[in-house]
Amino acid sequence: MSTFYLRIEDKAKTRKILIDMAYLAKHNIIRLPKYYFEDGLYLPYKGNSYSESSVEKYELTKDKIIKEDENFYYFKFPFKHEQVEGVAV
User: Fold this and answer.
1) Which of 19, 20, 22, 43 could hold 4 in an S-S bridge, CB 3.0 to 4.6 Å?
2) H-assigned helices in 14-89
């Protein structure tokens, strides 16, 4: 399994946040520390066609939180691993 990054566009640059891949592989859920959460955070993925040119954004918003504890937010991971854009640019 390759490494996935969440991204956030900040003015003229894109920042990346590494996803906890061990947790994702075991539970098929994105576990994000609360201090990393901010508006505009997204996971780039390839649509149903899996073509390189159709990269879409899965935005992580408060309404998509499926569980929360003291330190983490948990988000559903509704894709196959092959669909996620794994390249960190």
Assistant:
1) 19
2) 21-27
